[in-house]
Write a structure and sequence with these properties.
The protein has 182 residues and is an all-alpha fold. Helix content is 66%, strand content 0%. It is built from six helices and no strands. Troponin I is the inhibitory subunit of troponin, the thin filament regulatory complex which confers calcium-sensitivity to striated muscle actomyosin ATPase activity. This is Troponin I, fast skeletal muscle. It comes from Sclerurus mexicanus.
């Protein structure tokens, strides 16, 4: 599906939109500045300190100091409310997550750890005994197994002929009864 607008036309529209957005942003900054100046001119009256005596200047300083304290208390109260609200929002978010019950669990990897490394991790430097499990295994010598089972090498056809029929089965039965083999 092809676009109906060419690339150059898209670029032109994008640049026009950016220019318009920049103009509006600049105008918004100017508006905010004028609003701030207007508000401050309404709230703050200019000070006339010329021609005042020392006692009148001291009274003026006391009044200004009281106003600053009042404003500072209001600022502190608003800041405390804001901090309280942010903590409450955090707690509510945690409660919502708890109610959902969906926690993203990280994928676990299989890690090969030897018994020594595991004991060192659990016990720390106290672990000094080596846990070499293979050293404690019973060793079996190959020569011993060969002595126990002597292998008879012979013609297998003779053995089959001797064991065939009822006589062969009787010989096998007798051999199983007596362990010495007669």
């Amino acid at each position: 599906r092809k676009s109906k607008i060419t690339a150059s036309r898209k670029l032109l529209l994008k640049s026009l939109m950016l220019a318009k957005a920049k103009e509006e942003w600049d105008q918004e900054i100017v508006d905010k500045q004028t609003e701030k100046e207007r508000y401050l001119s309404e709230r703050i009256t200019p000070l006339h300190t010329s021609g005042l005596s020392l006692s009148q200047l001291q009274d003026l300083c006391r009044e200004l100091h009281e106003k600053v304290e009042i404003v500072d208390e209001e600022r502190y109260d608003i800041e405390a409310k804001c901090n309280h609200n942010t903590r409450e929002i955090k707690d509510l978010k945690i409660k919502v997550l708890d109610l959902r019950g969906k926690f993203k669990r990280p994928p676990l990897r299989r890690v090969r750890v030897s018994a020594d490394a595991m004991l060192r991790a659990l016990l720390g430097s106290k672990h000094k005994v080596s846990m070499d499990l293979r050293a404690n295994l019973k060793s079996v010598k190959k020569e011993d197994t060969e002595k126990e089972r002597p292998v008879e090498v012979g013609d297998w056809r003779k053995n089959v002929e001797a064991m065939s029929g009822m006589e062969g089965r009787k010989k096998m039965f007798d051999a199983a009864k007596s362990p010495t083999g007669q």
